[in-house]
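lol so apparently i was supposed to do this last week
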Amino acid sequence: MAVVPVLLWLFHQSSHELAQSRAWVSHSNTVLITLDHIRIDAGAVEGARRGYFITKQDSYLPAYLQAKKTLPRNLADLKSLTADNPDQQGRLELLTPVINELLSMADSEITGPSYDASQSGLRMAHARELLEQMRSLYAQMSSEEEVLLRIREQDTRNKLHNLNLWLIGISIGFITLIVLAFVNGQREIKQRRLAEAALLESEGLNQLTVRNLSLMGEMTSLLQACSDADESLDVICQYAARLLNTDSGALFLFRESRNQVELSVSWGEESKSDVIFQPEDCWALRRGELHVLDHVTHSIACRHLQDWGDICSVCVPIVAQGNVMGTLYLENRHNREIRLDERNLAHNLANQIALAMSSIKLRDTLRNLSVRDPLTGLFNRRYMEESLQREIATAKRKNRPLGLVILDLDHFKTFNDTFGHDAGDMLLREVGSVLAKNSRAGDVACRFGGEEFVIIFPEAAPNIVVQLTNQLRETIFAMQLQHFGRSLGQVSASFGVAAFPDHGGTTEELLRAADKALYRAKAAGRNRVEMAGNHAPIATEKPV
Ligand SMILES: Nc1nc2c(ncn2[C@@H]2O[C@H](COP(=O)(O)OP(=O)(O)OP(=O)(O)O)[C@@H](O)[C@H]2O)c(=O)[nH]1
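anyway here it is w/ guanosine-5'-triphosphate bound
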């Protein structure tokens, strides 16, 4: 914008020079007109003189008198007009006496006494000579002034042309400035609108972020209070559905075997993912990083997706302390992209899930350590005693029966001595596994100590308990075990059964009754089931 005053100043200068140039043209024209008047007046003086001399008529006098009056004035004007031009001044100095003499000759002949006619020829010749001189000087002065006029007119034309160029330049400059100002203004308006839109968006995002943070905080707090994995999955499902604005979502977790990934919870519409798949079928699990499928990136679809033509999906690995636990899967239909902020949120959610799952797992592990027998994985004696106490109380309250079984492997010392302590451990693990597999939910199977096991059957009538115990005995007796390729032969176990309330109302009473029954089973030849208070053997195989 600083260029505008400069342009205006230059325009002003150019106009001023044009005006000066025009003044000089006008000046030259004035000089030429004045010269013309002098020439005409001088001619009028000479004409009047000659006419009056020949005719003596007064009709010649007015023109003479007029010229006599104007000639000195015009000569004075011409002197001042040519003051800047020494050449013209020099010629004027020659012209002035010639004209004065012409005037004085006319004056003496018109107003003075008549003179001798014999002199008339001489005077005529002198007058002609003066006139010639006057014309010659006039011609020189006119020609000089015309040259000056042409130069000045050319200069004026040049200046006018320059001024026009300036005008065009300034006009273009102004138009350019106006266009630039307009474009700039439009750009500023656009930028302001963009900034306003960004502000609104960021305000919206802030509100969303605050809401998401609050939901995430709530979820984390609930997850910390969850007592087991099932509870935590419920919480995850409810909060993920509220946090993530996708058509469907699901959490897939590794199975214990870690060779398959399985749907744990899902929300929204039914997804296009398989319910169970191999870990290699998911790019997020293979690479340990978020994997996006959309129509923008055209990335590769995971193999656990079916018919994925118009879906946009994201798989986020659930990783805690370097251990991949599964994948969080999100899906939109009809090519609706899962936005970057949603992906980031999913990433954060996956981290929270990973932390929660790993802490629940850790808690489970610690609890298992305190309540489980490390060799067989069954509950330990302390847990059994607590459970028995609780179950007896429940049975009393609900007036329901309860069965208690003590199992003792037969000749286990001999077994150990024959096949070694490791083989003995293996047998204990296998028996533990038989008990775990044959227990219903609610039954409590535990290792009581050494080669002794206890099973609590809540709400089971005595005859059912005996029946279940016999099945266990038969299963153990049918086991074909090998240790490092060596057959371990046939093993058996003896069982003592006690029932609540028939054989006792407390933990100690029931355990004692079952132990006595076991003692009888051993004494009776082993591989059999004995019921407390019942002296006839309930079931037996051949003695071992
Ligand atoms: N391998 C192994 N052996 C154990 C474990 N706990 C106890 N034992 C052994 O189990 C054997 C128990 O032997 P006993 O109490 O004499 O009974 P038994 O040989 O089974 O004879 P009966 O009970 O009368 O049939 C002992 O030799 C213990 O050392 C264990 O955790 N692992």
